[in-house]
Amino acid sequence: MQHWTGVIGRAQQLMLEQFSEAMTAAGAGGEATARATALFGDAAKAGEAQSDFWKDSLQLWQRFLTAPATGAPSPADQDRRFAAAQWRDNPIFDMIRQSYMLVADHLLKGVDALDGVPAREREQLRFATRTFVDAFSPSNFAFTNPLVIEKAIETRGASLIRGLEHMLADLEKGQLSHTDPNAFEVGRNIANTPGKVIHETPLYQLIQYTPTTDKVLGIPLLIFPPWINRFYILDLNPEKSFIRWAVEQGLSVFVVSWKSADESLAGTTMDDYVLNGILDAIDTVRTALKVESVHTIGYCVAGTNLAALLGYLAATGNAAKVASATFFTAQVDFTQAGELNLFIDDSQLDLIGQLAGDKGYLDGRYMALTFNLLRGRDLIWSYVVNNYLLGQDYPPFDLLFWNGDTTNLPYTWHRAYLEDFYRDNKLVQPGGVSVGGVPINLTSVTTPSYVQAGREDHIAPPESVWKITEHFTGPLRFVLAGSGHIAGVVNPPSANKYQYWTNEARATTLDQFVAGATETKGSWWPDWIKWIRALDAAEIKAAGARIPGKGTLKAVEDAPGRYVRMR
C-alpha cells in the first residue's frame, strides 16, 4: 500500500508540475500564452479542476488508510464492470478500480472544462476521451482483473487457453465475435418465414411471403431494409419476426434483400438505390399484383432514400404509387444526427477511400467496428473480458449473430451519402439533391407517413428522426418507442416489453410531443397496423398472384434467397 501511495503521489506531482509550467508560460504572453490557453482554457477553471482532483485523491487514499466507510455506494460500486464482490473485498483491487474511476471522471471533466473549443471538436474530443477511458479500464487486463486471475487459477490456465483460441479465431476472420457463429444458419433457424424470391436484379432480390390468412389487404406491403445490414433483422425467429407478424395481420408482404457489394457494384450511386432499387421494386409489385399503389417501410438508411424517392415521385407527378410510407428510425435532416457525425470529416472520408482501395467497395467489417465503437464498453470490451480473458463460451443470441453478419458497401454511394447528407445536410435543402436529374424538395411530400423513433437510439437519435415532421407536409403520425435502434423496432406484442408514446395533438417540437404524450405499455406494432387499416381496409382473397410464384412472376428460389448468404 505504501508503494502504491508513492506511485499515485508521483503521478499527481507530475500533473501539478505540468500545470504550474503552463501557468507560468501563460504569464509570459505571446505564443506560450496561446498554447497554455488552448490546453487549459481559463486559468482559474483549470486550477479549480486540479484542486478538485487533488481533493478527491486525498479522500480516496484516506478511505484506504482508515476504517471502511459506510453510506452511499461509490461510482465504482454502481459500475457493472466492477460489480463482482472480488473488486470490493480485496483492498488492492478496490484501490485499482477506485483510482481508475477517479482518473476517468476527471479526464472527462477536463474535456468539458476546455474553453474556446468549437462544439463539434469538443464532442469529438469527448468521444475520443471516453473511448480511451473505456479501453484502459483495469477490467480489460488480466493482471488487474481479480476475476480473470481467480478463473485462471481455478482452471489451471485452461480459461486463458480457451480465451486465446477465441482471440486467434477472431484475428483470423478480422472481426470480434459476439455469439456462437455455429448456433444459427440463415434459412434454418433464422430468416425462415416461408416465401419465395420472385424477382432478381444485380442489386437486389425481391421476396414475397406466403399468406397465412384467407383474405389479405388489397394494398400490399413492401419493406426496404438498410443495405448496411442484412434484411433478416426483421425476421430473426418466429417470435421476433416483424415480417411473419405482418403476414399474420393479413398483409401481402414483400421484402427487398440487397446484394452485399462486390466489384460488380463498385460504381453504384444513390440513383441506383433509389431508382433501380426502391422504385423498381415498387413498380414490380404494382405490376405483378395489378394494384395502383403499395404501402412501404424504410428502415434506417433505406428510410432516408425512401424519403428521397417520395420527393422524386412528387416532382414527377407519380406520388400515387405509394399509398403510405413508414419510417423505422430514419433520418432526413442530419443537423442532430448524433455521434456518427463525429466520424464525418476529411480525414475519415480519405480513410474510407483508402480502405476501399481499388476494389470500389468498403468491407462491412469497417462499418461493424464503427457501430461497435459507439457503444464500446458493451459491444467491444465486455466481450474481450468474457471471451478472451475469462475464456467463456459464446452464448447463442440471434440478434448478435445478425449484428456480426456484415455487408459490404459501394464506395461511391457511401462517400456521397456521408458528404451530402451527414456533412452538408443537402437532402432537406430544396433542390440540394437530385434523383435521376430531378431536383427534389421534401416539403412537396404529402404521402401519409408513420414515423417511428427509438427513445434511446444512439444511431438515429429521436431528436433527429423527429425532424421528418418539419419537412413533410402530408398527414403524419409520430411514435416514440422505448429502447433503441434495434430493440425499439424489433419489439413484438408477445414479448410484453418496453412501451411507446403517442400524442394526438399537434406538436411542433419533440419536447412538446413528449410533454403531451400518452404512454402505452408494450409494442407499438398494433398501433401501426391499426393506422395501416385506417388508410384502406379493403380485402381480397389470398389467391393467384398473392401466392408466391403463382402469378406472372415465377419463383426463382425459396426465401430467404442466396443474396442474403453472399459475403
Instruction: Assign a percent range to the helix content.
Output: 40-55%
Helices, by number, come to 19
Q: In one word, what is the shape?
A: globular
> Regions with pLDDT < 50 over 5+ consecutive residues?
11-16, 26-44
- Strand proportion, as a percent range, falls in 5-15%
**Which structural category fits the helices and strands?**
alpha/beta
List how many beta strands DSSP finds. 17
Q: Separation of termini?
A: 54 Å
Q: Name the average pLDDT.
A: 87
Radius of gyration: 27 Å
- Characterize the biggest β-sheet: 11 strands, mixed
Q: Strand arrangement, largest sheet? A: 15-14-13-12-7-6-4-5-2-1-17
Walk me through the structure.
The structure is a single chain. α11 links the parallel β6 and β7. About 4% of the residues have low confidence. The chain has an eleven-stranded mixed sheet, with helices on both faces. Strands 3-16 form a two-stranded antiparallel sheet. A two-stranded antiparallel sheet has the order 8-9. Helix content is 44%, strand content 13%. The two termini are 54 Å apart. α1 runs antiparallel to α3, α3 runs antiparallel to α5 and α10 crosses α11.
